[in-house]
Amino acid sequence: MNPQITTFDAIAFTLIPGLWLGVLLLLRLLLMKEGPQVANRILAVIICGMTLVISAPLFLTHLSLSTRWHLLRNIGTVSFLYGPGVYFYILASIQKEFQLNRRASLHAVPALFLILMGALASILWDREPYAGFGDDHFQPPLRAKVMAIVLLLHVSTYLFLAGRLLLRHRRFVIDRASYTDEVHSRWLLFVYSLLWIPILSAAFSLFLFQPFKAPPLAPIGSSLMVIAFHVLILFWPQIFRGFPESLRADREEDLEPVRYQSSSLDEELKEKYFRQILRYMETNRLYLKPDLTLSQLAEGVLINQKYISQVINEKSGRNFMDFVNGYRVEAAKRYLLEQQYSHYTIVAIASEVGFHSRSAFYSAFKKFTGMTPSTFRDGETSVQIPESGHPDS
After folding, report:
1. How many Cα atoms occupy the beta-carbon half-sphere of 314 within 13 Å?
2. Burial, 143: exposed, middle or buried (Cβ in 10 Å; 0-12, 13-18, 19+)?
3. Contact 280, 321 (CB under 8 A)
4. What does the alpha-carbon distance between residue 19 and residue 179 come to, in Å, rounded to a whole number?
5. Average pLDDT for 366-385
6. How many CB atoms lie within 10 A of CB 47?
7. Distance (Å, rounded) from C-alpha 47 to C-alpha 217?
8. C-beta neighbour count of 64 within 10 angstroms
9. What CATH code would you report for 3-253?
């Protein structure tokens, strides 16, 4: 019995849990009714592809040498679609009513071109590429190694672009909403990290081992990723329900940083709008609304949303979230210092002044005062609080 085949079989059969869990996860994502439907469908396609990658080593030893070669090559070329798939998944998770329209399909053009080039190379040069494939002295063609490197660069580029989307979405939220959804923000970042596992495994195998003789690290990495996803969806299915609508962009262009250079506002008009915003915030105590967004404020003061963002940023020196949280922290100070509210817990005060969670309250309070709410309450009670609720008064 060939000891090399035995070792390969032993490693390959460790992939069986990933294979079966991949099938179950695929079905679960396709049947899921809650959350961003398109994002979950795209993730299902990604999981389907990874399941095929996992299954390949399980059948390699039972196939002819020529079939093995063509199977490995075809899996490699189709893997060019993995990068755009991850990019679309992240975009569909942070954008309202995302659709794979004609513009989105342009991202698939480079992948399809590279797949076509791989198929053309096979027709022209790989008529008998499997001669010697499987023995100890087999060396894959140079073009196969080059294609593998191009694949890694292509997929990595899209993964970096997907990470950039997450950072842009973070900036989008703090400029347009008065709260964040830390649960989904952190989980989406964690899910994004999991999607790196197959590509890192493939890179490790390509550069540190001799190709086609190393353990199947890419399928093993894919199996680990699928298992991790299955655990997530089994124990924390709520993370696949996505962000609230108010924290998702209408269009991809909305994620771009706001630029004010072309604004027609002069200083006098900016000052007028700023006073109008302050008066409306203080009169209506709009900051007490936990889900307050920039668009809601714009509707109230009847000023263009872009102008409000510009005025708040330039006149207060804060983004929209910090601007609103400044009011909330000032209101919280009163609750913490006044005797009639001494029986209120920190969590109760956070809720009263418009914070979504205790952690968000602690973070904002420490940012504006340099101390925690508990320390503030237990400290000197002679702190001067401005008569106006505006933190810059």
Report:
1. 20
2. middle
3. no
4. 40
5. 76
6. 25
7. 17
8. 10
9. 1.20.1070
Residue 342, amino acid: S
Please give the radius of gyration of the chain, using alpha carbons only, rounded to the nearest integer: 27
Torsion sign (Cα): 326, 331, 333, 336: negative
3-state helix, strand, coil in the chain (%, to 5): 70, 0, 25
The β-bridge partners of 249 are 95
| Distance in angstroms (rounded) separating the CA atoms of residues 43 and 241 | 13
- Show the tokens assigned to 95: 């954008």
Q: Where are the domains of the chain?
A: 3-253, 267-378
Most distant CA atoms of the chain, gap in Å: 87
Tens of pLDDT, residue by residue over 331-340, are 999 999 888 8
Token pair, residue 376, equals: 């503030």
Q: Where on the phi/psi map is residue 244: left (φ > 0), alpha (ψ -120 to 50), or beta?
A: beta
The dihedral region occupied by 345, where left means phi > 0, alpha psi between -120 and 50, and beta the remainder, is beta
Separation of alpha carbons 35 and 162, rounded Å: 20
The dotted CATH code for 267-378 is 1.10.10.60
Between CA 25 and CA 72 the distance in angstroms is 24
Q: How many CA atoms lie within 13 A of 20 on its CB side?
A: 4
The alpha carbon dihedral of 207, 191, 56, 8 has a sign of positive
308 contacts 294 by C-beta, under 8 angstroms = yes
Question: Which range (11-15, 92-96, 337-341) has the least confidence?
Answer: 11-15
3-state SS, 134-175, equals CCCCCCCCHHHHHHHHHHHHHHHHHHHHHHHHHHHHHHHHHH
d(CA 194, CA 174): 26
pLDDT digits (tens, 9 = 90+) for 16-48: 888 888 899 889 888 888 778 889 899 999 998
Q: What is the mean pLDDT of residues 215-241?
A: 83
Q: How far apart are CA 314 and CA 26, in angstroms?
A: 48
280 in Cβ contact with 300 (< 8 Å): yes
